[in-house]
Each structure stands twice: as structure tokens, then as C-alpha cells.
Please model this.
Amino acid sequence: MPRPLPDKIDKSPVITLSMCGDVMTGRGIDQVLPRPSDPRLYESYVKNATKYVALAQTVSGPFPKRVDFSYPWGDALEELERVTPDLRIINLETAITKSDDFWKHKGINYRMHPENIPCLQAARIDCCSIANNHVLDWGYAGLLETLAALKQVNVKCAGAGRNITEAEAPAVMEVDDKGRVLLFGYASPSSGVPHDWAATKTRPGVNFLADLSQKTVQHIAAQVQKVKRERDIVVASIHWGDNWGYEIPDEQRTFSHQLIDEAGVDVIHGHSSHHPKGIEVYEDRPIMYGCGDFLNDYEGISGYERYRDDLVLTYVVTMQPRSGKLVRFEMIPFQIKRFRLNYVSRSDSHWLRDALDRECARFGGHVELSETDRLTLGTGPFLKGSPTGTIAQRG
Model:
């Protein structure tokens, strides 16, 4: 049986975070929301975003030409109400803009119309990491409009800004009578983020991780130390790595451990992979190396079926603010179908359990499936260091 809790539990209040990987409400999904953008695309083969709608309908069956703002979240809304997290955190992998200044030669450019931002409000999103390889898809104007749109609806963001100072600053979220959550966003070139997207003193951009060196760890540690205080939970939200495959590069693992040991980080929220990857608990702190996608318009795009990227997870992470330690780690599975999050079949729950159990075992972890299709991560004693072709396009 897994043991999801340390032996001695602090009885002080806990903070529960709902955390998801990449949320892409642009392109095809944007086309079925109430205020679609101009559907023109600049991809190699697909030139109109409505083709992604048609592709999804071909493989999954018809759905409305126009849906309401809550539609994409589907059954996830009910589950989040049951969980009642203190905060809801995502990686927002699309620009929110009317800009037509697409980034030349990038290949794929995601955007959601600003008037569709109630889609994020429908899921009561509290904070977005926007340090990723799509936030500047529509140029600097697109980034600035994204920042303005999120601010207008009181959704906090981190990882990009009008200059390096803003891009490096954390999103600070107060949880009444419990503590604070500080989220720093980082974008690595290993996920396809162009080097010239890096914010500077005079140029907008992302909080760019040029490398995963000790020098970078020290820089992050200095940033954290400036703002972290007692009962703060620090989240490092990092867009890194390949879209496909379960391998965790040694440098990612070493970097994550150093952020916990030396920089005061309590949660590593990794994303960019299109499917969930292994999870490690290190020094009683969770490391999600790749959360996988959560919302996208990829239905019917073939080539990587063995990874089942239609099966996605909400990670429910409960932490002790006083100690910064993990209390409980659960995952709620859904299936993307017809651009909507749906409850999974029992057989799909078993598939996810087996895949995650296999990958987490590398780090001394074990995943169990409940009768209600929730997945729970447990370990033995929380260790200080466990051993170590298609025309349609994904981002």
C-alpha cells in the first residue's frame, strides 16, 4: 500500500492546489467559443483553424458549432467543486489577442480572442504560468494584450512580462488564514522557446532559462529569498523538455533537486510534454516533471497514439505551509473528446494507473486507483533522493 503522508503530520492548516499542464484554448477551441478569432493560420499545411474543428468532429462525432464558455472544461468543473482547492493553477499555452503580427517562421501560432477570456473565468482559474513556447506567437503586441486581458479578469500570471523585472516576478496569492503561494514561471529552450523571446531590461518576453546550471540555481535562489517568508509555498512552474517520451533527463532531475535544496522551492510544476510523465517526491516535496496537456484541439492528429494524449490529469497537491512539506498527492483523470473534458472509462483509468505506476516506480513511488477513478501517489519513506507525419500540427 502507498504511504502518501510522512510519519509525523503537522496539524496546522493545509493548502490544496489544483494544478494542470498545458491549457490551449486557442486555434480550434477558439473557433467554437462565442467570439472566434480570424481563423487564418500560417502553418505549413493547415491554413484555417476551422479544419481542426472538422478533424475532431470526424473522429469523435459532431458537437455544436458554437459552445458556451464552460463547455471545454466539461466534467472537470464538477470534480473541482468536489475538491474545493484553495487555488487553481494552469500553464496557459496560448496568446489572448487580436494581433495579426504572427511570429514568422515559427510554424504554429496559437491565439484566443480576448472576448473569449470568460472561458478561463468559467473554470475559476486563479493563476497562469505564461512562460512557454506560444505566449509570443503573435508578437510583442500579442503578449502585451495577453497580460492586459488576464489582469482585467483578475487572473494572476507569471513567467512573462513587459521587461525582465516583470517576467522574473512571482505571482503572489494569499490564502486566507493559511499562508501564501508564490509562483515563478520559467521557459527553457528545450521546449522550443526561441532564445530571442527572452525578456530584457527594455524588451518584453519570457523568463528564459538559458541553462540548468548551478549559476542559474543561485540566481533563482536569490529571487526566492527576496520574497519568501514563513508559511509561503513556492512553486517553480517550468516549461521544458520534449513533447513525447517518458525519459527524465538527468539535468532536469538534478536541477529540480537543487531548486528544493538550495533555492527554497516546494513544488516543481513541469510541463511541455503532451502526456503525463513520472512524478518524484524529494525531501517531502513533489516534482511533476511533465504534467501533460489538459486542454487542446489535437483530436484526430495521428502519430503518437501509444502515449494516449487524450487522457489528461488534474493534479491535486496538498501542502503544509508551515513546513513546506507534501501532505497528499492525488490525480483526477479525464478524456478530451469533442473539445471537452469528460469522465474516463474504468479501462482508461487502469491504463493511466499502470503507466504512471511504472514511471513513478523509478523514483520510489507507487500509484493506486480508487473506486471513484482517482489516482493517489504514495511512496515508501519519503526519500532524500530516490535512485535515479501528419498534416495537422500540435504545438
